[in-house]
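I would like you to sit down with the record closing this message with an eye to the fold:
=====
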Amino acid sequence: MPQNKSKGYGDMADRDDMLARVYAADGDPEKLIESYDRWASSYDRDLFAMGYRHPVVVAGTLARFAPNLDITVLDAGCGSGLLGEALSLLGYAEVVGIDLSEGMLEQAAAKTCYADLQQVMLGEDLEYEDGTFDAVVSAGVMTVGHAPPEALVELARVTRPGGHLVVAIVREAWESGFRNVAERLAADHKITPLYRTNHYVGLPGAPEAERVEARVHVMRRV
């Protein structure tokens, strides 16, 4: 009898269905929460099976520009904690995570790599003082139908002057709004763009429609 090669890594049809659901939510908060809560228990293995790249690229880029491991980092849209886990492995010990999905936050808490976790919707006002964090990172949430471009404004506000924002932004989301917000923040002397990676596909093993390109952008808070 042929072996089921997908065993232990989630069924491919289920993975594709879950991914399609989050994109079909089209930014509706209730639908996004429902979709991510439903996906939470199998999220990590499903994304690993699709070759998820954002966490390692973002974590590596932060380490290049902010090598001091004693800094306080905000993981915006932390999901199940894959980026927080990568940062912990690099030695960052003070990482705070925020996400809209309670189910995802439970998965993140189980990784024990966060100093604090809060249920927060990106795009809304954050309950942190100006300049609370030495760095802000984000992986996989600045994409179509997820965090709105204006979320960058609040993330910049809570970053201390001289601190860094290191965020993965999908090409389509960048062109349809994030670029304008980033350029406005730069013109208002709130941030200075420092660097961006080459384009890469965040989920190379996803269905073709979701196999989209992104870049990690580095901005310094002024």
About this structure: The beta strands are 72-76, 94-99, 116-119, 133-142, 159-170, 191-196, 200-201, 213-221. The helical segments are 12-24, 29-39, 43-49, 54-65, 82-90, 102-110, 151-157, 171-187. The first strand starts at residue 72 and ends at 76.
